């Protein structure tokens, strides 16, 4: 249950993600810098630092960016096969695993050719780099690469909801289209689309509240030449102030990975 937008910019790409979660689930930790090289048994060449928040229950994440200029984001799917009662690993481990493989094309290639999705419940994983992004969807049977026309534009939205799935997706996509048509307004760098429901959440809004679930946080990763920056807001009972994130940090990009974005359109 999340809402993600990707927006191309002159200096790279910006990913903003609202995380919706069950009220019964444990808390989360805002973005920190993670170093896989500090873990025993890591292979040489895979010791790339990355930044992102963590789920305190399972230890994984829903969004992260590495020093090679790659952003990966995960949204849950809701396929019928998910409810078969099988004991499954946490989908939150997919993003950290993918980010260990380096640059955008290497991460996408690993997901398409070497990653085995079969143990996991359904999901979408979206990978972004300088001027590029792609979505891969696992429906419990097949891992497919999305070729939606939205990925040819300057911005895209992805959303998922376990409640009233189709209607929530339609309403959020319509709100996103309206935001784009209005010129993509932002408040302190946060797309106003992600703030719909701020202080007055409804079941379908990007900041939402329902009896069993609620929006927990907003995380924004901005990839620009030289840096991967993160901003994070914990969403509580009162409206958040976009100008004052709870966490801000930067991860310098590996010098040999920095390049100009593929296009400059917004």
Structural commentary:
The protein is mostly beta strands. It is built from three helices and 15 strands. A hairpin with a 2-residue loop joins β11 (186-187) and β12 (190-191).
Summarize the helices and strands and which ones pair or pack.
Blueprint: E1 2-9, E2 12-22, E3 28-34, E4 50-55, E5 63-66, E6 71-76, H1 94-99, H2 104-113, E7 123-129, E8 132-138, E9 143-145, E10 155-160, H3 165-181, E11 186-187, E12 190-191, E13 213-224, E14 227-234, E15 247-252
Antiparallel strand pairs: 1-2, 1-10, 2-13, 3-4, 4-5, 5-6, 6-7, 7-8, 8-9, 11-12, 13-14, 14-15
What's the pLDDT, averaged over the residues? 90
Overall, the morphology is globular
Q: What is the structural class?
A: mainly beta
Main sheet: strand order: 3-4-5-6-7-8-9
* Main beta-sheet strand count, sense and barrel state: 7 strands, antiparallel
Radius of gyration: 17 Å
The ordered string of helix (H) and strand (E) elements is EEEEEEHHEEEEHEEEEE
Beta content comes to 35-45%
- DSSP summary: helix tally: 3
Percent range for helical residues?
A: 10-25%
- Total strands: the figure is 15
Cα distance spanning the termini: 28 Å
Low-confidence stretches: 40-46, 256-266
Summary keywords:
single chain; 266 residues; mainly beta; 3 helices; disordered C terminus
Question: How would you concisely characterize the structure shown here?
Answer:
The protein is mainly beta and 266 residues long. The protein contains 3 helices and 15 strands. It has helices spanning 94-99, 104-113, 165-181; strands at residues 2-9, 12-22, 28-34, 50-55, 63-66, 71-76, 123-129, 132-138, 143-145, 155-160, 186-187, 190-191, 213-224, 227-234, 247-252.
């Amino acid at each position: 249950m999340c809402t993600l937008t990707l927006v191309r910019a002159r200096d790279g790409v910006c990913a903003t993600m609202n995380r919706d979660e069950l009220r019964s689930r444990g808390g989360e930790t805002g973005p920190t810098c993670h170093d896989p090289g500090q873990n025993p048994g890591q292979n040489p060449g895979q010791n790339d630092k990355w930044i992102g928040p963590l789920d305190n229950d399972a230890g994984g994440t829903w969004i992260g960016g590495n020093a090679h200029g790659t952003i990966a984001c995960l949204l849950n799917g809701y396929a019928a096969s998910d409810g078969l009662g099988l004991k499954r690993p946490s989908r939150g481990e997919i993003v950290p695993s993918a980010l260990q493989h380096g640059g955008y094309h290497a991460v996408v290639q690993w997901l398409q050719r070497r990653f085995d999705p079969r143990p996991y419940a359904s999901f979408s994983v979206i990978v972004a780099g300088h001027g590029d992004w792609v979505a891969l969807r696992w429906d419990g049977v097949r891992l497919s690469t999305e070729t939606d026309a939205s990925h040819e534009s300057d911005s895209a939205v992805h959303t998922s909801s376990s409640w009233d799935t189709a209607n929530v997706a339609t309403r959020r996509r319509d709100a996103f289209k309206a935001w784009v048509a209005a010129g993509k307004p932002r408040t302190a760098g946060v797309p106003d689309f992600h703030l719909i429901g701020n202080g007055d959440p409804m079941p379908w809004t990007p900041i939402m509240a329902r009896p069993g679930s609620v929006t927990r946080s907003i995380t924004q990763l901005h990839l620009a030449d030289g840096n991967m920056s993160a901003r994070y807001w914990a969403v509580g009972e009162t409206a958040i102030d976009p100008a004052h994130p709870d966490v801000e940090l930067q991860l310098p990009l590996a010098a040999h990975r920095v390049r100009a974005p593929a296009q400059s359109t917004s």
